[in-house]
Amino acid sequence: MSQIDAGWGAGPSGRYEDLAAGFRPVFVEIRATAVGRDAERRLPHAEIGWLREARFTALRLPLQAGGHGASLPELFNLLIELSAADSNVTNALRAHFGFTEDVLTAASPEWRARWTARLAVGETVGSGVSETGPAKVGQFDTVLRRRGDERVVDGQKFYTTGALFADWIHLSAQDEAGAPVVAAVPTRAPGVTIKDDWDGFGQALTASGTARFDGVVLAPELIKPETVRFPYAMAFFQLVHLATLAGIGRAAAEDAAGLVAARARVYSHGNAGRPADDPQVQAVVGRVRGNAYAAGAIVLKAAEGVQRAAEAAQGQGRAAAEPACALADVEVNQAVTVVTNLVLEATTVLFDALGASATKAEHGLDRHWRNARTLTSHNPRIYRERSVGDFAINGTRPPREYRVGTA
């Protein structure tokens, strides 16, 4: 069934349905086991493997490089569909798709060619940026040191989302002088330890726990020549979260409709002989679905702004693309609170269409709210609203980087 036939509207391009058709059978398989995996805390190793085999992880690579040549709106629409199947899987691949953008915009032709080839054969990348230690904002406790002729990494990262499933960790660190360092660390290198110790109540299957680096030797070609990220990174990474939220909303709407359709018991003070015919129940399901539809539409509109920023960066260079990148940040920031509210409401009010049996663990409906609430706790939305207000009033561009640490 096409996205149009399902009532979610047209995709972002004329070829979108053909592009999505190759992945939808995988999405169906992923969704079929999502509730059980969440209940049993079974990590989606197999599911991410299916996506690799389908070349989903190479979406953004050019056709001539072995990818699908997907635009950013096409990517984000597919992330909505994947998130409707299991939002954990989308989040686990967030760092991989961000690393891909870094590769596509890298200034070094050698770095770009080397990593394009690796991504084209299905190699994947997890996150190694955030820390929970005492490092100050803008600094890291993870350090790349010289040891004779070798370069060695020591330190610890948290929120290493997706690293446990990946071949590589995209590492942000600093050298002995405090200068920033960016590198790719093999997940199976001696001295690398990755733990699934993330204990959040949502997004529990993303392996967003601890990675330790104890004397990890890095070959020179694994250290990136430039340390800056792609210029539209802030908008991109936040929009992945919003696409994931839109997918959660879509899954919540479909689950609510399916359970109402199958329900036989009614209340004596209801309005029909079947819950499916009760206009008040229908209105609740319609409200949940409307919220999900609006969230998806907003994501795709914001994705157009990120696409403009990407095209400016590739066609005009980083400095000239700055205005387009700043405007992409504004568009995404404007979307954050609206999409968040739509999905948090949808994942709460869906229970009003059902009885107490809807809270049974076998349905897993609580996972929608837990996952949504966890995602919306990243990069607090209160600061996004302030940033938008400052732009609207004073013309101030949003911050170009977000970092966490001690003051």
TrEMBL record:
- Tell me the ranges covered by the Acyl-CoA oxidase/dehydrogenase middle domain, including all copies: 136-216
Q: Which InterPro entries would you find in this protein's record? A: Acyl-CoA_dehydrogenase (IPR050741), Acyl-CoA_DH_C (IPR013107), Acyl-CoA_Oxase/DH_mid-dom (IPR006091), Acyl-CoA_Oxase/DH_mid-dom_sf (IPR046373), AcylCo_DH-like_C (IPR036250), AcylCoA_DH/ox_N (IPR013786), AcylCoA_DH/ox_N_sf (IPR037069), AcylCoA_DH/oxidase_NM_dom_sf (IPR009100)
The Acyl-CoA dehydrogenase/oxidase N-terminal domain covers 31-123
Q: Could you say which residues form the signal peptide?
A: none
UniProt domain Acyl-CoA dehydrogenase C-terminal: residue ranges:
241-378
**Highest taxon of source:** Bacteria
Record's keyword terms, sorted? Flavoprotein, Oxidoreductase
Q: Which family does it belong to?
A: Belongs to the HpaH/HsaA monooxygenase family.
What name does this protein carry?
Acyl-CoA dehydrogenase family protein
Organism of origin is Methylorubrum podarium
